[in-house]
Design brief:
Elements lengths: L1 H20 L5 H32 L3 H35 L8 H21 L6 H32 L1
Helix pairs in contact: 1-3, 2-3, 2-5, 3-4, 4-5
Length: 164
């Protein structure tokens, strides 16, 4: 059933992939563009977002905490957007290279990380009333888990990239 869904999804994305294939982009860009861009987003932006969130949470100086929370609050939504767009680009890259989708560990770790980040955004959007401190704590740990999962996702992505 999953294979049928993957085949249908590939068929739906094929016209878009064909358009990009028609641009005659150099093969290294098609093959390694997604990993390079997402590596920057996760390693640079993601690590700073995680750092700023924890620094804001653990800082004893209110000014330091406020600055870090503000940085986290400004950058985390952009990081989520870039990861969501990169997720879409990664799937499209596989279709462009005529590779199976939905079958790699890389796909599933990326899907899981995107789900965790989505839930994490909802925790903050819904953090009100008595549950606020609990949801903020859950947010901190789920965000950290998502970041670690994204690092693991990168390892699986490197393995996938070297295998195709």
């Amino acid at each position: 059933m999953l294979e049928q869904f993957a085949a249908r999804l590939s068929d739906l994305l094929e016209p878009i992939a064909a358009f990009f294939r028609g641009l005659n982009l150099p093969e290294p860009i098609v093959h390694w563009g997604h990993p390079a861009m997402m590596g920057i987003v996760v390693l640079v932006m993601g690590s700073y977002v995680a750092y700023a969130g924890w620094r804001g949470r653990l800082a004893t100086d209110p000014e330091v905490a406020a600055k870090n929370w503000m940085d986290h609050k400004k950058l985390a939504p952009l990081m989520f957007l870039f990861i969501a767009l990169g997720y879409t680009g990664g799937v499209l890259s596989l279709v462009m290279q005529k590779q199976p989708i939905l079958s790699s560990t890389h796909f599933w770790t990326g899907s899981s990380a995107l789900l965790l980040l989505t839930l994490n955004g909802l925790f903050i959007a819904l953090s009100f009333g008595k549950a606020k401190s609990v949801l903020r704590t859950v947010h901190a740990y789920v965000g950290s888990a998502a970041f670690v999962l994204l690092l693991l996702h990168g390892v699986f992505g490197l393995k996938l990239g070297l295998s195709i």
